[in-house]
Automatic annotation (TrEMBL):
<dbReference type="InterPro" id="IPR004176">
    <property type="entry name" value="Clp_R_N"/>
</dbReference>
<keyword id="KW-0677">Repeat</keyword>
<dbReference type="InterPro" id="IPR044217">
    <property type="entry name" value="CLPT1/2"/>
</dbReference>
<protein>
    <recommendedName>
        <fullName>Clp R domain-containing protein</fullName>
    </recommendedName>
</protein>
<dbReference type="Pfam" id="PF02861">
    <property type="entry name" value="Clp_N"/>
</dbReference>
<dbReference type="InterPro" id="IPR036628">
    <property type="entry name" value="Clp_N_dom_sf"/>
</dbReference>
<feature type="domain" description="Clp R">
    <location>
        <begin position="91"/>
        <end position="237"/>
    </location>
</feature>
């Protein structure tokens, strides 16, 4: 009796009958291709194209497709001296070690949450790069990265922990002059070779009132060592960097 009543309920219920009749039909197109081009309205997102939904196999393939990443290569560092801006044929090229040292200096300034990239950051960048003759020369004279970082905090203080540095902290005036000096050294030598980290270090040392110079002096760097580095640079032409 109970089975007979349930059968009658299924026959008399229009919704169940409609589902049963729909399931018996043969579909010529798969269900997941339906409604892939309708625009859905969301109160927070506005109009959303449902073709990007996960129910569409085409959109799933597009989602898994690897994205193209456009990379830009820096071939020069900023200069504030218009006299150093020459034609491309005569423009000195910065070595990849010098460019990496500059990039690491920017990153170190961001780590310390400083608003600018100063000569102290350029000095740390040379040490972080680590493969140039200049960085090896500094380590041989017991000028290590952790010591420079400690002296930087002593000299400039700790930054506000809630301060967020810009992605590319702008150069301080003495850091810009140090880079200009590095470029000028190469031009005075006839523009032979590339501008190397040694040029940057000598530029930092030439800025007597800069934090980078003071930190180097505190850690035992002297004019004699600067001349030693400069003489080696002029003899070898920085080729071994």
């Amino acid at each position: 009796m109970a089975a007979h009543s349930s059968c009658n309920f299924a026959l008399t219920n229009p919704i169940i009958s409609q589902i049963d009749s729909f399931s018996k039909k043969k579909l010529s197109v798969p269900l997941y291709f339906f409604s892939t081009r309708k625009a859905l309205t969301n109160p927070w997102l506005g109009v959303v194209d449902s073709s990007l939904s996960l129910t569409s196999p085409v959109s799933a393939l597009q989602t898994n497709r690897p994205r193209r990443i456009h990379k830009s290569v820096i071939s020069s560092l900023p200069t504030a001296n218009p006299d150093l801006v020459v034609s491309d044929a005569k423009k000195p090229k910065w070595s990849w070690r010098a460019i990496k040292s500059f990039a690491m200096g920017e990153l170190e300034a961001r780590k310390l949450k400083y608003p600018n990239t100063g000569t102290e950051a350029l000095l740390m960048g040379i040490l972080i790069e680590g493969t140039s003759f200049t960085s090896k020369f500094l380590r041989a004279n017991k000028i290590m990265l952790y010591k420079v970082r400690e002296e930087t905090v002593k000299l400039l203080g700790k930054a506000d922990m809630y301060f967020f540095s810009p992605e590319h902290p702008p150069l301080t005036q003495d850091a810009q002059r140090a880079l200009d000096s590095a470029l000028d050294q190469n031009l005075k030598a006839g523009g032979i070779g590339e501008v190397m980290p040694a040029h940057i270090l000598l530029g930092i040392w030439s800025e007597v009132e800069s934090p980078g110079h003071k930190i180097l002096a505190t850690l035992g760097f002297t004019d004699e060592k600067s001349k030693e580095l400069e003489s080696f640079a002029s003899e070898s032409g920085f080729l071994d960097e």
